[in-house]
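Hi L.,

You mentioned the student needs an example of a multi-chain input paired with its predicted structure. This one should do, with 948 residues in total across all chains.
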Amino acid sequence: MSAITPEIVAEHGLNPDEYDRIVNAMGREPNITELGIFSVMWSEHCSYKSSRRHLRKLPTEAPWVICGPGENAGIIDIGDGQAAIFKMESHNHPSFIEPYQGAATGVGGILRDVFTMGARPVANLNALRFGSPDHPKTRHLLSGVVAGIGGYGNCVGVPTIGGECDFHPAYNGNILVNAMTVGIADTDKIFYSAAAGIGNPVIYVGSKTGRDGIHGATMASAEFGENSEEKRPTVQVGDPFTEKLLIEACLELMATDAIVAIQDMGAAGLTSSSVEMGSKGEVGIELDLDNVPQRETGMTPYEMMLSESQERMLMVLKPGREPEAMAIFRKWDLDFAVIGKVTDTRHLVLKHKGEIVADIPLGPLVDDAPNYDRPHEETEKQDVLGPDSFTAPESNADALRELLATPDLASKRWIWQQYDHMVMGDTIGRPGGDAGVVRVHGTQKALAITTDCTPRYCKADPVEGGRQAVAETWRNITATGAIPLAITNCLNFGNPEKPIIMGQFVGCIEGMAEACLALDYPVISGNVSLYNETNGQAILPTPAIGGVGILTNYEQRASIAFAAEGETIVLIGDTEGHLGQSLYARELCGREDGAPPPVNLSAERRNGDLVRGLILTGVATSCHDVSGGGLLVAIADMAMASRIGAVLDYDRGGVPSYAFLFGEDQGRYVITTNSPELVLEQAAVDGVNASVIGVTGGATLKISEFDSISVAELTQVHEGWLPAYMAIP
Amino acid sequence: MKPAVIVFPASNCDRDAAVAIEKICGVKPLMVWHGDSTLPDVDLIVIPGGFSFGDYLRCGAMAARSPVMREVVARANNGTPVLGICNGFQVLTEAGLLPGALMMNAHLKFVCKDVALKVESNQSMFTSAYQTGEIVTYTVAHHEGNYFADDATLDQIEQNGQVAFRYLDNPNGARNDIAGIFNKERNVLGLMPHPERMIERDLGGDDGARMFESLVASL
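Structure written out for the whole complex:
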């Protein structure tokens, strides 16, 4: 075993101080395998060393939360003895290197996080961000990521029911691929990762272990006495076929009572899974690495422990249950191997070829992980810009036509048509609406699920942006009629060692926490992705939020499509014509300055609760929240979805029409109804601003007496941009 | 009615097919594992959609050689109705029960959307509840749905009236806009679109339900 030199320490991404902590924890110098294990467990990805102290500020509790952050995924109670289990995770760096496999394995990983807890995955979503459409790599990355997400999700047979996709030059060197999975389990059949039962067998199932994705593959091989494997791509390769078998085999075994604990092998594979299981259970784990199913010959303990081969799980079984478990995995043609046992030592002990090759005390490995309070600098507040700061368009119809064909607002049909969004036969709210809706199989319940974030707001004002991201998902769910229950998140930021970036992170967390508290909408799982920078250029702060809500009776729900002609259109919420940080400002005026629109959380809640009530009582016949692009874009979305036009007639109360129509004031919804008096009455009782702004009907969106555009033309420009863009070789 | 749904590794519309059969036909189908070499006494065999064997080698190629398929082929040849949906259609062509092959979509991408189909003939136990010439909406979700047969085979299929469904707006480049075909005896139907996904309004439509109603009526 070669001695650990400062160079080796540095190559493992550890600083000298961190190495001293390791020596301290071990009571001796670690060997290379032990160092490798510490390095991954203490990596930013696994230890959250820059973010941990701030993540604690997020509210994580509510009466319906069964399990908050800390397990593979979070769990909420959805009634009738059923639970929804979900999480979102990033796969940014690998997707930039190899978009198809990077995105595919991102989907695979998040699926495992969910079914490892006993849930059958019922929906996938994603949040994607790419560089400027003009950037030479964007087309290739977009097409690869979409194909990868589809290739994996379609094969495993889980519908991909929603997502978002934005473009900005800040992502030119760092795209974001965030994937979310939601699963359903019975509350009495949930599986956790804490190992228990001294002497119980530790089982490895799934694919074999290879040298793919080994951390430290960039290290000089000489120091490990290995040959030139370091050239191997560090991006893992996914096999959705095996994943599908793994889902079925695990769920089949979970229907018995043979499993004590189970954990998927995600980042840092065998290392993180065995460490998690041992430390959570406050026990020791002893593994005999000779029994690990291997795809390649001559693998070292270091390589086996750090491999990130996909589609693998680790579990602890009750004693004597191995034969029935093995029969299930054999039926599904998957590897099944007893590779160790639970011990009372609270150490992770690894044996290889008859020798002990690692012996690490789990307490210090987990508890002594660095926990940094990095300096953070508040983002300077920007001026609130009034409507007069922006030029008025020639005509509002022209501005709408132009906006609907901009990359962020253009239809993403080209993307979601490549995802099977109907498999499993329960998708009743397809992509393209405010939230995807899937029924809870065999019940009257359904889940409304969405992902959202507005990074340009977060950049301009992290606290406001954090609030808005949470509120926006709450709104998306509310607009279907569902009650928002909880969120997961994927916090994508630049280099936390820069105070301004760390300040963005801290600010977004603060805003998110406020919104979660005000809306009774806790965080139950999540993931942090830092160092999204290339050549010192950071991405926009992007705290992507995945929200889940419930419809207790899916018959009572709304979609964004106008329900019929001749219905009254009502705007709910206050409109001041806030154009700062709007898409109108960016796309039509070429400006990215000004403060973002403020979120008033008490109004948010009042407005949303009113709207939900109107949907559940059938008073509101369709509903759409007002977000990027403002009111007129929201109305156009509803018109295009139904192929029904509208005649607008509204009192803008002194706000210039372009600011009224394109301002991005928060907390607003457009609904249609046959009982406008009832809506206005109820709104008045609730203290909510509601006003009639038009009537549905015809084939044209009539914005004013002299300004109109046909719905067919809107659809043509809206649907046209992405296919045309992608058709260019 | 005694239906069976064959389950291959990575079939993923097996449950959807079973749900549709149970809902429309009122009877729970038997779920038969691909590795079984015997098949109970059934009067309808459904090969569901999915990615049997991960679509490795060639879609449907490995599934067509699963132990249970020998029995499926024998039953089909004896007149038992066999319905292959999506991947099931691919399996049936690979098993030689239907002519032609399904190639990669002409645009090279997976496509999931509703498609309008023309019912070419209601003279079969799968389509009797439709009108000949009627336009119906099913959902497609496939990467390899581009139906191909050589000119001679295609002529024969057309002359024999074996085309069951045709796309109005071809989503994959299929020859003659073919979405689904019968065998000559019309007891085997393979089609790319999914009737089982269109069995109720909440899912976007119920045109698919009538395929199962047709089967109920004739079995």
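You could point out the following to them. Chain A touches chain B at residues 147, 150-151, 154-157, 239-242, 244-245, 332-333, 416-425, 427-428, 430, 439, 554 (CB under 8 Å). Chain A is about 35% helix and 25% strand.

Best wishes,
N.
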